[in-house]
Amino acid sequence: MEKFEVIYSQEEDVAIVNIRGFLDAHTAPLFEQELQKRVDEKKFKIVVDLEGLQYISSAGLGVFMGFIEEIRGNGGDIKICGATPKVYRVFDLLGFPNLFEFAENRMEAVVKFNNQ
Where are the domains of the chain? Predict the structure, then answer.
């Protein structure tokens, strides 16, 4: 099983959180800590790049739901990009595309913030 990683970077005023490997009950707290750090730093424009993500469980999906209200309440948003068809299907089954904006890639996601 591929090691779970959370890689943070920044593009303009957008925080990029890249997650790779398997996001499940064991690794969800790492992802949660990363998002909490960004919120603590008052970075409310967040792109979560799933390019290297191979699997997501309900625990992983719960992390997104746990932060979205606070982030939107502060005038920000979480945009999701780079999901493989397999990973996207999990989001789609649970109606996430109605709640979150999905983009093909990181550049497109960042541009969506700049066009708001």
Answer: 5-114
- Distance, in Å, from the CA atom of 66 to the CA atom of 39, rounded to the nearest integer, reads 12
Structural fold of domain 5-114: Transcription Regulator spoIIAA (3.30.750)
Distance separating alpha carbons of residues 6 and 34, to the nearest angstrom: 7
Strand partners, 14: 11
Supply the pLDDT for residue 47. Answer: 98
Beta strands in the chain (DSSP E): 5-11, 14-23, 45-56, 77-81, 101-103
Please answer whether residues 51 and 18 qualify as being in contact, where contact means their C-beta atoms are separated by less than 8 angstroms.
yes
Q: Is 100:90 a contact under the CB 8 Å cutoff?
A: no
pLDDT tens column, 60-89: 999 999 999 999 999 999 999 999 999 999
Measured in residues, the chain has a length of 116
Q: Measured between alpha carbons, how far is 73 from 56 in angstroms, rounded to an integer?
A: 26
In this prediction the pTM is 0.96
